[in-house]
Amino acid sequence: MPSRFCPGPVSRREFLAAGMLGVGGMTLPDLYRMRAQAAALEKASDPDTSIIFVWLPGGPPHIDMYDMKPNAPTEIRGPFNPIRTNVPGIDVCELMPRHAAIADKFSVVRSISHHFADHGGGHKRLMTGVVPATPVDTVNDAPCTGSIVAKCREHLNRGIPNYVSMNPGGRVGDVFAQGPAYLGMSYTPFSVVGDPSSPTFSVPGLAPIASVGNRADDRFKLLASLDRVDRQIDSSGAMSTLDQFQQRGVNMLTTDKAKRAFDLSRETDAVRNRYGRHCWGQRALMARRLVEAGVSFVTLIMENPYQSGVPHLKQGVYNWDSHAVNCHIWDDLKVRLPIYDQAVSALIEDVYARGLDKKTMILVTGEFGRTPRIESSKGTQTGVMHPGRDHWPQAMSLIMAGAGMKTGQVVGSTNSKGEHPKDRPLTPNDLWATVYKHLGIDFNDTFLDHRGRPMAILPSGAPIAELF
User: Fold this and answer.
1) Does position 209 have pLDDT exceeding 80, yes or no?
2) Which domain holds residue 237?
3) How far apart are CA 376 and CA 384, in angstroms?
4) Burial level of 388, CB count in 10 A (0-12/13-18/19+)?
5) CA distance 149 to 363
6) What is the pLDDT of residue 167?
7) What predicted TM-score, i.e. pTM, was given to this entire model?
8) Sorting pLDDT into bands at 50, 70 and 90, what band is 225?
9) How far apart are CA 173 and CA 179, in angstroms?
10) d(Cα 461, Cα 429) in Å, to the nearest integer?
11) Residue 177 and residue 58 share a domain
12) Are residues 106 and 226 in the same domain?
């Protein structure tokens, strides 16, 4: 298979070269003219599609959310009851009433499974669609899907990054197996940290456009001078990576499009309240604004619900890793699921209400499910016995919405105890094949790894036919 290349219509070096050839260097109008030319070239080939990838690290309990088993023994089913949705035959947990009201707008997939029970292996298996070389740690040996999309769409110059990740606490890249592996560091996400619901929240690097204009010409001349260095002496590829980061920075500095996209104050109080005035809700709202602005892939991490004024339960847990030693799973879910329900349902409703449901796919998942059988252990924080569930990659549930897909359905099923797929067994590769189909990316294409070997975007998998 041929190696895929995605050259851009106007690279940083091309506009630097133009600056060196011109008398007195490139001016700001020159840059805008070249940007307009690039936009014209993009117009015919720019697929106006996007992904909002909601990541639930730690592993959400499928049997307590989307695949409930009310007739199973008490040591399996848990204390919560399923409730009917607006689609006959689809039930969800009683702690998610907003989901129940919009079940016609999403599909539940209940039969994806894999074999990596460690968080690291599970993250890599889910994020890449490739069986990882090691079952632990989160350093990718294959590019995550977001990095693949960033590579395939690197020619797009929209004044805003093609790949954005909203991360908690400044942790980026390989912490959640979001690394680009052999594609290189240019294809890591533009990372947005912190709590967007905070009054002091800001996105570093988005300087006011007026303060940039007076200095832009000088910056371009300086970069042109630095570019005289012979790039052939740098066999590591670091200079090429620097090119990509500098071009990204120039785009962010010379347009206010990114600044507007990240500015939640442009939304009405009613909209912000609908999503929830907490970190997860405002991240979800920002994700919608980003895809509207032209970002191709947004990773929205919903990890810790105990922020934005939500009191931390002593028997709660930071992420979705609901072992009995970590938390009292039922108490934690009573806090976690209502916040999750509000943010995710608002995002889905808003995408449809704003006419983005053909352009944008919403995908919500973690790295695996939880054990059907309830465990009991002494909590490390409380010193008392707690119920909980362990890691369980043999079965998991996820939801998908938008992308012009058929919604209001359940794809696949598990056995009566939620242990493994009963029918329509699927893998993470089938999930990503569905995503790439929506984005118009041929997942049989290849990129060269560090040894110069052609590596397929996906080594196997097929789009989930029931969704189209």
Assistant:
1) no
2) 15-45+209-255
3) 10
4) buried
5) 15
6) 82
7) 0.84
8) very low
9) 5
10) 5
11) yes
12) no
